[in-house]
Write a structure and sequence with these properties.
373 residues, alpha/beta, Aminopeptidase, 2 domains, three-stranded antiparallel β-sheet, 11 strands, globular, signal, EC 3.4.-.-, zinc, metal-binding
Length: 373
C-alpha cells in the first residue's frame, strides 16, 4: 500500500496524468500479470489462466501492461495532449494515391497460391499460443520463411526481437534513403478457447501474416528501393496475450526515438460476407486512416467499410500508445468478421483467399505510396 500511495503522490505532484493509481499485486505476485480493459482502467493483477476466464472466453479485449509501464504512462500523457499531437500529424499524408503505375507490376506478381500455402503452414501448428511449447517452433518456421523470401534482395535485413517469453517477434527491413520507417504489421501467434486448446488461427491472424509476407516477397524479388523511408514488416508474437509483442517493439522504437511515419496493422483478412475492406477509426491516426481509404478503390476491387473496434482490439493500439500514426485494416465489420476466431474452428477451410489477395494488393499499393513519404 505504501508504494501505491507514494506513486499517487508523485503523479499528483508532477501532474503527468489523472488516471487511477496502478494497483500493487497482492500475495505471491510472481506470475501475476497486470491487465486492463479500458484507457481509464487501472488494471488488475491476474494469472495467465484468468486471461482466458475473464477476457478471452468473453471476447473482452485487454492489454497486458506488466512489462511496459513506460508505454502506459506515455499513452496517458498523450491523451491529455491529444489536440496538439493530432494537429502535428494532420498534414503529413497525401490526399490520395500517386504511384499506381509503379505499383501495378508488383501487384500483378502477387500469388494467391503462396497465401494459401503459407496459411496452411501456420495453421498446421496445433497452436501458436505464445506460452505453448509450439511457440518456438512457429517462430523458427516463420523466421526461416521470411529469410527465404527476403534473400532475393541481399540489402533486406531480418531479425528476431526477443521478449520475456519464448516467441520472438520478427522484423524484416527494406532499407530506404532516410532515417524514417514505415511499418506494416500482423501477429503470428494464435489462441484457442483454453491454453491447451487447438488453435489453427487461420484467419486470426495467419491471414494477415501471409499478406505482409507476400508483399515482402514481391518487393524483394523486384529489388524494390524506397525513395524515402525504410519499409519494415513486423510479425508480432503475443498479441493474444494482451498485445505483448507489439508493445515491446513500439516501446523500444519510442525509447530509441525511431522516426515512425506510419504503422498499418492487419488482423484478419480472409472472411468478408460484405466483400469489403474495413478500416477502423478508433485508437488510430485519422489522417493516416483517411489516406488509406483512398487507396482501397485505387488498388483493390473492393469498397471501404468504416467501423470501430474498441480498446486494445489489435496491435495498432500499441503504436498509437507510443505516439506513432497507426491504422487498422480488417476483413469486414466487427459484427460480420469471422465468427470462428479463438477456437479450433478458425480453420483454413473458412478462409477466402481471393479476399486475402485483395488485402495483399492494398498492402503493396500502400507500401509503394509510403516509400515516397
Ligand atoms: Zn488477431
Amino acid at each position: 500500500m505504501v508504494s501505491t500511495t507514494l506513486l499517487t503522490l508523485l503523479l499528483g505532484v508532477t501532474g503527468v496524468f489523472a488516471l487511477p493509481p496502478i494497483p500493487s499485486p497482492s500475495s505471491s505476485a510472481k506470475d501475476l500479470r497486470l491487465c486492463k480493459t479500458s484507457p481509464t482502467d487501472p488494471g488488475i493483477w491476474i494469472t495467465e489462466e484468468e486471461k482466458f476466464t475473464r477476457f478471452i472466453s468473453k471476447k473482452i479485449n485487454f492489454v497486458d501492461i506488466t512489462d511496459t509501464p513506460n508505454l502506459e504512462a506515455l499513452a496517458a500523457e498523450k491523451a491529455t495532449n491529444l489536440q496538439v499531437s493530432t494537429a502535428s500529424i494532420e498534414s503529413a499524408f497525401p490526399s490520395g494515391p500517386a504511384h499506381q503505375s509503379q505499383a501495378a507490376p508488383l501487384i500483378s506478381a502477387l500469388s494467391q497460391a503462396n497465401l494459401q500455402t503459407w496459411t496452411n503452414g501456420l495453421a498446421n501448428f496445433y497452436t501458436r499460443y505464445y506460452k505453448s511449447s509450439y511457440a518456438p517452433q512457429a517462430a523458427t518456421w516463420l523466421y526461416d520463411t521470411v529469410v527465404s523470401v527476403a534473400k532475393a534482395n541481399p540489402t533486406i535485413t531480418v531479425r528476431k526481437f526477443n521478449h520475456s517469453y519464448s516467441m520472438p517477434s520478427i522484423i524484416a527491413k527494406i532499407p530506404g534513403t532516410t532515417n524514417s520507417v514505415v511499418v506494416v504489421s500482423a501477429h503470428y501467434d494464435s489462441v484457442g478457447s483454453t491454453a491447451s486448446g487447438r488453435a489453427p488461427g487461420a484467419d486470426d491472424d495467419a491471414s494477415g501474416v501471409v499478406v505482409i509476407l507476400e508483399a515482402l516477397r514481391v518487393l524483394a524479388a523486384a529489388k524494390f528501393k524506397p525513395s524515402g523511408p525504410s519499409l519494415e514488416f513486423h510479425f508480432y508474437s503475443g498479441e493474444e496475450g494482451g498485445l505483448l509483442g507489439s508493445r515491446d517493439v513500439m516501446n523500444d522504437y519510442r525509447t530509441r526515438n525511431v522516426d515512425v511515419l506510419a504503422v498499418v496493422n492487419q488482423d484478419m483478412t480472409g472472411y468478408s460476407p460484405n466483400n469489403v475492406i474495413a478500416i477502423f477509426d478508433d485508437y488510430v491516426s485519422l489522417p493516416l486512416t483517411s489516406f488509406l481509404k483512398t487507396l482501397v478503390p485505387a488498388y483493390t476491387q473492393l469498397k471501404v467499410l468504416t467501423d470501430r473496434c474498441g480498446y486494445a482490439c489489435s496491435d495498432h493500439a500499441s503504436a498509437t500508445a507510443a505516439g506513432f500514426p497507426a491504422a487498422y485494416v480488417c476483413e469486414d465489420s466487427m459484427n460480420d468478421s469471422s465468427p470462428y476466431i479463438h477456437s479450433a474452428q478458425d480453420a483454413v477451410s473458412t478462409v477466402n483467399f481471393a479476399h486475402v489477395l485483395q488485402h495483399a494488393k492494398f498492402t503493396v499499393g500502400f507500401l509503394v505510396e509510403a516509400s515516397y513519404f
